[in-house]
Amino acid sequence: MSAATQYELFIDGAWRRGGNGEIPVVNPATEQVFASVASASIEDLDDALAAAERSRGAWAALPACERGALLIAAARILASRVDEAARSLSGEQGKTLAEAKGEYRRALEMLEWNGIHAEQLCASLPIGAGRTLVPEPLGVIAAFTPWNYPAVLNARKLGAALVAGCPVILKGAEETPSASVFLVQALQDAGIPAGVVNLVFGVPAVISEHLLRSPVIKVLSFTGSTAVGKHLARLAADNLQRCVLELGGHCPVIVCEDADVEAAAAAISEYKFECAGQSCNAPSRVLVAKPVYEQFVSKLVDVAKSIKVGAPDAPDTQMGPLANGRRIDALKRLTEDAVAKGANIETGGRRLDQAGFYWPPTILTGVRHDSSVLREEPFGPILTVAPFESLDDAIAEANDTEYGLASYCFTASEETKRTLAGSLTAGAVSINFLRGVAADAPHSGVKQSGYGYEGGEQGVRSFQNLKLINGLDALDR
Ligand code: NAD
After folding, report:
1. Nearest CA to ligand 1 atom 42
2. Which architecture does CATH list for 5-247+449-470?
């Protein structure tokens, strides 16, 4: 990408500069500005609202299989551009090139999965006794995606909304605009009708307030922090817009005495430090059975120390910089608070002394209960590790958080698996398994981690009204 790259808005089927100037895009590995993204004015947003509303009827009326075919075509086009798209994503986000390519592979799977299942996801659902449910698109979606996994999150939101028959106004992340631009460009090149997909960037609070004040918007789909999610849900309340909120997490892992302790440490480290730990699903608190605690910590620290931190485009780099300076400030504050309250830094614990937002894998032990790092979502490469005496203690500790997104455990016992599956309070419990959510699975949080489903069949239902028809067995269109 050239130093002069200027990312634009896409409104009513055409790319345009924004009416509110430009926002600089910073390379987190160098802290240098290397691109800019257009900032939308109120007029740009009104144009997007009008275009989306104009396109609504025809898009909803298109047979579902045709909407699906368009998504599959877009996925093929994007697949042919993955090398270039991944280089841009790595440059603006800081994740390694390999991680960026992996993210695009997942994004393609999301588009394809929705495309392939389009007909089935829009077919009427007989419920017996001469009654049927007819899925109808709810209308124009306002979608907001963050900077950590912009390709996957855009694909998950756009794939489901478009298949459901809903036009979208997507506000991409200003810090990582290329992932939104590549995806929307692929949809345009596949032939998406004007107005069905609109892409805006700008001042987030201005955009969300203006869009959610409009009765054109029928659903809010947001991924980001709990604080912003609550603010947007309040705005959406005035128009009773349906909300899908994917918010923060503070995910526990329980490692039992009967687990393969060394394999668990390696698997936790690999998943945790992907994207420099900036994932809502990343584990952040490890609870280890006392008899294997020392063995686990020693292995985890060895693996964490061996991770090569460096420039995201260097072939031997395993972890790049954090995405922005805000994360450095937060990690510094959380680490200093924990240490002041008696925690030990087993490895890492301070910013690397070089240009770029580099913070190494950090393991903290002996963390006191009232430390901020156990309460606030760290959203970075910090793991706390603590021993537990009994499974009941571990469960209580794991659930002792306001978040409820994902929980993990490692055990060989079938009985323990069942106990933990039933007693961990989270949208998902993963047993001897750490991986991102696949395209066919619904993803949702409980407690302060949000509500509403993304992904899989339930993700498409988020954008549909299931109209009950009494007196018909089916209504296929
Ligand atoms: P932030 O809360 O300022 O922003 C988070 C996201 O929300 C960004 O994409 C931002 O552009 C957007 N946003 C902020 N205010 C908005 C508004 N009024 N209207 C619409 N969108 C708005 O925090 P940040 O520093 O960018 O990110 C750090 C925190 O965000 C983390 O602690 C984490 O909790 C959360 N986060 C969560 C996810 C996730 O996958 N759930 C992803 C990214 C960030």
Report:
1. 224
2. 3-Layer(aba) Sandwich (3.40)
Tell me how far the alpha carbon of residue 130 lies from the centroid of ligand 1, in angstroms: 46
Q: What strand order describes the sheet that includes 283-289?
A: 344-347, 362-365, 382-388, 283-289, 251-255, 406-410, 428-431
pLDDT digits (tens, 9 = 90+) for 124-140: 999 999 999 999 999 99
Residues forming the active site: 246, 280
Determine which helix (DSSP H) or strand (DSSP E) holds 102, and give its type and residue range. Answer: helix 97-116
How many CB atoms are closer than 10 A to CB 290?
A: 13
Averaged over 217-237, what is the pLDDT? 98
As for ligand 1, residues whose beta carbon falls within 6 Å of it are 144, 146-148, 173, 204-205, 208, 223-225, 227-228, 231-232, 246-248, 280, 326, 377, 379
> 401 CA distance to ligand 1 centroid (A)?
20
Domain ranges of the chain: 5-247+449-470, 251-431
Query: Separation of 146 CA from ligand 1 center, angstroms?
Result: 6
- Check: CB of residue 137 under 8 Å from CB of residue 164: yes
Q: Whose CA is nearest to atom 1 of ligand 1?
A: 225
Element (H, E) at 268: helix 261-272
pLDDT at res. 193: 98
Q: Which residue from 228, 243, 275 has its CB within 8 A of the most atoms of ligand 1, so it is best to mutate?
A: 228
CB atoms within 10 A of CB 210: 23
Query: Is the whole-model pTM more than 0.90?
Result: yes
Q: How far is CA 53 from CA 154, 169, 217, 337, in A?
A: 20, 10, 9, 50
Which tens digit of pLDDT belongs to each residue from 70-87? 999 999 999 999 999 999
Q: Which amino acid is at 183?
A: L
CATH number for region 251-431: 3.40.309.10
Give the end-to-end CA distance of the chain in Å, rounded to a whole number: 45
420 burial (CB, 10 Å; 0-12 / 13-18 / 19+) is buried
Q: If you measure from the C-alpha of residue 355 to the centroid of ligand 1, how many angstroms do you get, rounded to a whole number?
A: 24
